[in-house]
Structures are given as C-alpha cells and as structure tokens.
Fold this protein.
Amino acid sequence: MPKLLHTADIHLDSPLQAGLPESVAAAVREGLFETLARLIETANDERVDAMLIAGDLFDSPTPSRSVAERAFELLGRSNAPVFISPGNHDYLLPRSPYLMLPLPENVHVFRSEQIEAVDLGDFVVYGAGFRSSTVSRPMLDGFHADTDKPSVMVIHGETATASAQYHPISTESIAASGLDYLALGHIHNRSEPQTAGKTVYAYSGTPANKSFRGTPGRGAYIVELGRPSTVRFIPTDARRFVTIESDTPSIPDGYERDLVRLIVTGEHEHLDTDALERELAPRAFYVKVVDHTRLPMRIWQRADEDTLAGAFLGALQAERERGEDDELVELAARFGLAALDREEAPL
Ligand SMILES: [Mn+2]
C-alpha cells in the first residue's frame, strides 16, 4: 500500500514571538531549515511514495527569494513527489514564490481553491490551496473521491471551530469524502488520528516548535494508506523548546541543543535568576529561569518576632487569610523583607 509522510506548519523564516535574544532567535529560524532537511531525509529513508505539506511551509505569502530558493532546493532532494497545499500564511498571491520561482520537478503546488486530483498510478492525491489569507467556503462540502484507488487529500483548515475564516471542515464532509486519509494543517499541536466514515484524518502539527507555548515533542506522521490507513509518529525537531519544573535549580543532561525554560519551585530564600542563567548556560543552548519559589516557612515564623519585620509579615499573613492572591503576598514579603533588612531588592 502507498506510504506517505505528512507534515505542515513549518513557518520558514518566522520572526518568532518568543521574546528570545536575536542571536538565539536566528538559530531557531535556522533550525527550521534543519528540520525541513530532516523531514526529507526521513521521507527518503522511509521510502515514502509521496510527501504531503499541508500548508504554511512559509510564514509569509512573499518570503524572501533566498528563503524560498533554499526551501525548494531541499524539497528537490526528496526522492518522492512533494505535494504542497498553501495555507493562510503562504497563500497564493500573484507574487508568491510558488508561482514566480522555478519549482523542482518533483514538487506540485495545489494552486486552486477548487479541489484538484493528481493520479500517481497506484493512488490519487487530492488538494487545494488558499488564494487569500482567509477562506470561508468549505471546500470539502460536496466532495467525494471519484476513484477506486487508495486516495489521500492534503489541505489547510479547521475542523473544530465556529470561526469560519480559516477554511472550515466539517466531520460530515470528511465522512462523506470517501478518502483513505486526510492530511491536515493549521493546528500546531498534533492530533491523534481520528476517523469519520472510513476516512482517517489528523493534524501532524508543526515539526518544530518556535516558542515555549505548545506541547513539546514535535514530528511528522508516516501514513500507510489502507482500509483503514495506519499512522505512525516520528520526531523531527532540530531544537526542542523544553519546560522543566523543579525544586532544584539544575538542568539534567541531554538538553545541550535545546531551549530550556526552568521553572524553579519550592522553598528558597532568594533566587538570583540572572546568576543561575549564567551558571546553567553550558547545560542547554538557551536557558530562561523563571522564579516560582516560595519563601521558606522559617521566614514566615519571623511573624512572631517583636520587630518591624515581624509586624509586616503578620500583616501580610492576615492579608493572605482574607483571600489576597498568594503570589502577590509572597512578592510583597520578599520586597518588604529585603528593604527592611537593607538589602538590595530581589528581582
Ligand atoms: Mn495556518
């Protein structure tokens, strides 16, 4: 049975919105190309019969020429044909690199908002593409795969929302499609494969994170078309965004290539986040320390002292008992004690 690699939402050349230092952001952007190269290597190693990119390969409809040429050069290394369904980020403007630049022979871009079929002999690939940043017409409504061969569709859109601007796809239309697999893009957290009618469908999610938001562990789906189709996940991200929550301000081995957000919890009198970031720098590609610590209990015991600090802590405890926000009370205690003890304020 035909074998496919399903990916989507790489967002090449994304400016990133993670609040990272520019040099780190540049490395993450570069990592997106590494991820694309890895996807193509995987497709070749797995000897897939087609690679499907379900939209938003580029972050913008008009990426720079060098970015587009680099992407196309990589896609040209795929032994299998590559099918691209442009999404709401890389939609088909007349100036689109999909239309302006020479594409490798093995790359097919779906250029219409009407569903088009490409018969590869053993199976049929269907697809369509965004021609503007929004598509409100449900392109799958009324569609049925008119073939006896195994069939797959690659498309960008939303299955589970009332908002209609990013190509709404109803479960009913999937069930009526007769497709063996529907390769979806747009949602960056991958979904487990689901079934409607006899059609298996999934979001592969983005193959590489671009911020600490979203679930870690990105990759692509390897699909074997069949009745029913089977779906297997393979990891692909070149640099992971990892969040570690720990009482101990340390980073375990194995994160040297990754971006780590270390959330320090537990009881600590004072956490110097800047010093800790410098100290942990060799343990990861980038370290961001977030202070979620609480003051040790013994500090709060000072509320019994007959001192100004004692009275201050007692007043704060009373605030806490009246329902004041815990984190705010902790912060007030830290700043207040630092001032009373004539230290420099923390943070
Ligand atoms: Mn999208």
About this structure: Residues 241-340 form one domain. Residues 55-56, 87-89, 156, 186 surround manganese (II) ion (CB under 6 Å). The radius of gyration is 26 Å.
